[in-house]
Amino acid sequence: MPTILIVEDDALLLDALTGQLQQLEFSVYTASSVAEATTLLQGQAVDGIILDLGLPGGADGMELLTWARTHIAGLPVLILTARDGIDDRIHGLNAGADDYITKPFNMQELQARLQAMLRRARQPAFTQASSASGGPSTAIGSLQIDHGNRSAVLGGEPLELTQREWELLELLVNRCGEVVTRDDVLAAWRAGPPEPGQAAAAPLNSNALEVYVHRLRRKLDASNLVIRNIRGLGYMLAKPAE
Ligand code: CA
User: Fold this and answer.
1) What is the pLDDT along the chain (242 residues), one digit of tens a residue?
2) In whole angstroms, how large is the CA radius of gyration of the chain?
3) CA distances from 102 to 56, 71, 150 (A)
4) CA of 6 relative to ligand 1 center, distance in Å
5) Do 205 and 228 share a domain, yes or no?
6) How far is the centre of ligand 1, averaged over its atoms, from the C-alpha of 11 (Å)?
């Protein structure tokens, strides 16, 4: 599921938003100032930001928006603010925000607009992935993965993957028809960004790997792709023709 950064200095609102989005199975990072958010974004990949404008610490949300626009290409930003003047809205949207919601707001509307924003953000990436001249992508059977933006499409439908599922899938695809050892996967996970949410607490070991392989198999159910157990060694993505 998507990973969202919420930048909000109202602790109660931050808690409420975080809880709601986690119920929708979003992975959520939080920050209460621009400095905190910038530091986090330098070490973490996120799919989108919910951004408050009035923030403590001398820098307001517009500065983070500007920073994100110059440092992270295509990152969708939804401004959630008490500033409800038409000038504020125009300023925010002109500065590159993808949507603008004023407080007080309706939680269901926020969720719907957030989902719509994330869908729009994914659209161009898939077009690029399917173009012959696009970024690095690999197609096996009905599965197409885009290495640049860490996304996958199965039978034309976006495949929702957590960070660890993505890393596992990419390894298997890169070495389709070859054995990928448990150590290979664990090393890739340790090198990658930590998975936010509940899974972050889970230790990286063979048991965790089995869980992720199981989940990935279920997600690939609709395809002709099979992840085989290679006893005592690891796993292999079988070539579809085999
Ligand atoms: Ca605020």
Assistant:
1) 899 999 999 999 999 999 999 999 999 999 999 999 999 998 888 999 999 999 999 999 999 999 998 888 778 999 999 999 988 998 998 888 999 999 999 999 999 999 988 987 775 433 334 433 356 788 888 888 888 888 899 988 899 998 889 999 999 998 888 889 998 898 888 887 777 665 555 667 878 888 899 999 999 987 888 899 988 888 999 877 54
2) 20
3) 19, 26, 32
4) 12
5) yes
6) 10
Residues 91 and 8 in one domain: yes
Does residue 132 sit in helix, strand or coil?
coil
Domain count, the chain: 2
List the shell of residues around ion ligand 1, using CB closer than 5 Å: 9, 52, 54
Taking the centre of ligand 1 as the mean of its atom positions, its distance from the CA of residue 8, in whole angstroms, is: 6
Whether residue 117 is found in the same domain as residue 10:
yes
CA of residue 233 to ligand 1 center, whole Å: 52
Q: Which residue range forms the structural domain that includes residue 68? A: 3-122
Residues 153 and 218 in one domain: yes
Distance of CA 165 to the CA centre of its chain: 12
Does residue 67 form part of some domain? Answer: yes
| Phi, psi for residue 79 in degrees, rounded to 5 | -85, 130
Q: Would you say residue 69 lies in a domain?
A: yes
